[in-house]
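COURSE: Structural Biology Practicum
ASSIGNMENT: Worksheet 4, Part C
STUDENT ID: 0417
INSTRUCTIONS: Below are two proteins. For each, the amino acid sequence is given first, followed by its structure token string. Answer the questions at the end about the second protein only.

PROTEIN I
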Amino acid sequence: MKIAVIGAGSWGTALAQLLAGNGHNVSLWARRSDVVSSINSKHRNPRYLSDVDLHPDVVATTSYHDALLRARAAVIVTPSKLLRGVARALADVVDADFPLIICSKGVEAESGLLPVEVFEAEMGNAQRLAVLSGPNHAEEVVRGIPSGTVIASPSDETAAFFRDVFAAPRFRAYVSRDVAGVELCAAFKNVIAIAVGVSYGLGYGDNTAAMLMTRGLAEMSRLVVKAGGEAITCMGLAGTGDLIATCTSEHSRNRRFGKMVAQGKTLEDFTNETHMVAEGALACKTIGVLAAHYGVELPITEMVRRVVWEGADPRRAGELLTDRPLTTEFYGI
């Protein structure tokens, strides 16, 4: 079938390659005309994963209408801050039952809504919506390195549909009904990856990283449960799996950003050097909106926010975390 992939960054490019390898015709929407021209003439994305030869069934366009014409489903892979605009644009092109799966990770800054909630608000019919998340570095998925992911939807039928669309021998897809849990895990792990990157950038070791990861997982669990998700989701691919991959891999843009912060660089420096979005930089603020709403304590998230957005000294922020009063390990869960 024809599948539209909206967003030609590294993750969108990798998923387009995966879907084409599964036998689908992929229409890849890109914002830049030079990216479209290169993909269609040279089968290469000049900005992301540029050393990968893309499948000939991946065809790029700058038109939403052309991308979605005769498509059976759409895969949304744009930065989280652009999701509402994308949803509004797509609402004018597709019908009320058209299946969409959201692969972007974050929380809307103004409203505190999760991506699937933004799409439901703009397009209606949550039953045709799904989300995808897991320990899936684009650099590895695009090369067929074995990976696993979870697809969550309020509709078993929609989840199964997208499972079958994405599943491949080297890309295992599992289904879940815990949409809120999967989406919160997806946003949260980027924040913790920044903290781990900062710790390595300051010269700390694996013990410190492991402490931040597990205490970050505890923060994740507290918020997921308060927001109506399931604690067990945090132990799965979208939670622990993605947390491990994002915090430990050199592919991780959020971990890399954290290391740059420890060296005195800014979010602008990161964006200029990599042409990528460190989603955790925004998420540490937007997750704070949810934390305040639900009355959940998130000390690591708060320290990351202070370091990234208020210029707090990273080493001093770490000292404030380790000086916190001692308590039971799983308080608040």
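PROTEIN II
(use this one for the questions)
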Amino acid sequence: MKNILVMGGKGQLASCIKDVEKNLTGFNFIYVDYDELDITKEEQITAFFDREEIKYCINCAAYTAVDKAESEPEFARNVNEKGARFLAKSCEEYNAVFIQISTDFVFDGKQSFPYTETDKTTPLSIYGVTKLDGEKATISSVQKHFIIRTSWLYSEYGNNFLKTMLRLGEEREELSVVCDQIGTPTYAGNLAEIILKIIAENSDSYGVYHYSNEGVASWYDFAKAIFEESETKIKLLPIKTEEFLTPAKRPSYSVMDKSKIKETFNLEIPYWRDSLRSVLKILGDE
């Protein structure tokens, strides 16, 4: 049995991996969260790798409070850059494959066509900067690595945009949502499937990849679809970013080109609204 370490073990992506891994035999998944293993402490990680025979490490752990990171830059850096570096170094030392989850926020959004893996990275926020630094630390620390940038992640687990919209739909009669930030909602369950596909195929096609669901949407479009699919009656108003000021700047356009991951792993990626429908059905069945 090959051991797979999943950091951020209580988060939404790890929870989705836990659902998907039932279809994968020959592997033992070890889910660890910050209260069990602090990725900002190198000696803890080294001791863990020394104790367990880790063959893959999937780093779902991240500081993702985008606005809060502007006032807690060191905290964000410790988790997103140092944590990734320490895990990557241990993977190199113990000959494990490192899978680092990154973000579309490494781009500034000034492009008007989908970003490829080789396009210039110029993040606008502390969160984006620290996640990009985590990518750089990964590349410089471990040879066997996959970096997967994703966007607008949601699921039936944890706190996310979908869950927030459903809650606000119950509480309010009217809601304003930004309409001029364009990207792609991504179901964490679909991302979990490709991560485990990489492992199951024992792939050595290391490098940076983009993964999101297919299609394009604004946050307003995403919210509108959530309310339509869940049959929630609410008045939804589109507003511009300048009307909804936040501490952190966000890319106005962060659609990612997924050609590389589709061709490398022979993927058919679901359309974002189809995946949304599936998640709402799961939530409705609970």
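ANSWER KEY EXCERPT:
Q1: The chain has nine helices and twelve strands.
Q2: The chain has a mean pLDDT of 94.
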